[in-house]
Amino acid sequence: MSDLETLKAEIRKLSAKATQAKMDLHDLSEELPLQWESILSVAQRAHDAFAELEQKRAALKSLEKA
What we know:
This protein has helices at 3-31, 39-65. It is mostly helical. It has one domain (3-61): Helix Hairpins (Orthogonal Bundle). Helix 1 packs antiparallel against helix 2. The longest helix has 29 residues, at 3-31. Residues 4-66 form a coiled coil.
């Protein structure tokens, strides 16, 4: 598998992970004030997932330009 294909596969996986993190955050918000203690950890997971996804998308973009 080429680097480009590998990166695209990673992006698909990260996109699914980010979407799940977004849904977890959404679900948590609907349950508030229950489980309010987990707001920071759930939000951090969502932030990290989207940050990693954006980093990989930027890497893909630069690889495609090369």
